[in-house]
Amino acid sequence: MIPYKMDLAIEQMNSNEAAAQGLVEALTGKVLPQREAVRVWNRIPDHKWYLSERLGRDVGSRVAAIDFLENFYEPAEIRTFGDSARKTLNKALSVVGSWTRSYLKAKSGAMPI
Predict the structure, then answer these.
(1) Per the structure, how many domains does the chain have?
(2) Cα dist. 80→32, 68, 94 in Å?
(3) What is the pLDDT of residue 88?
(4) I need a labelling partner for 59 at 20 to 30 A (CA). Which of 4, 36, 47, 112 fits?
(5) 10 and 55 housed in the same domain
(6) Domain shared by 67 and 18, yes or no
(7) 106 and 61, same structural domain?
(8) Which tens digits make up the pLDDT trace of 24-78?
(9) Angle CA(71)–CA(75)–CA(81) in degrees, nearest 5?
(10) Alpha-carbon gap, residue 60 to 28, rounded angstroms
């Protein structure tokens, strides 16, 4: 018996994460962290519908799950790294852009066209 409602909610949340992890592993053979498995599991029905519409026939959950993981899934570490890399690249481009503008300005002032 669980005496507090919050404890029940936490237990149910954890069991749902474990269930999603088990289902994703059973369908695809890949082990994902629980929170990632929940995120993937929530996207599989939409992907199944999309594949079924594109192919003109019903595809199974296993096919949809495997296709989603192989073609569309990005682990959280890669997404996070991608965001920081994108910010660094934008900063570098702004520095290079300002340097290029000042170089071209100096160059155009030194040489008449």
Answers:
(1) 2
(2) 17, 19, 21
(3) 73
(4) 36
(5) yes
(6) yes
(7) no
(8) 888 899 888 888 888 998 999 999 999 999 999 999 999 999 999 999 888 776 5
(9) 115
(10) 12
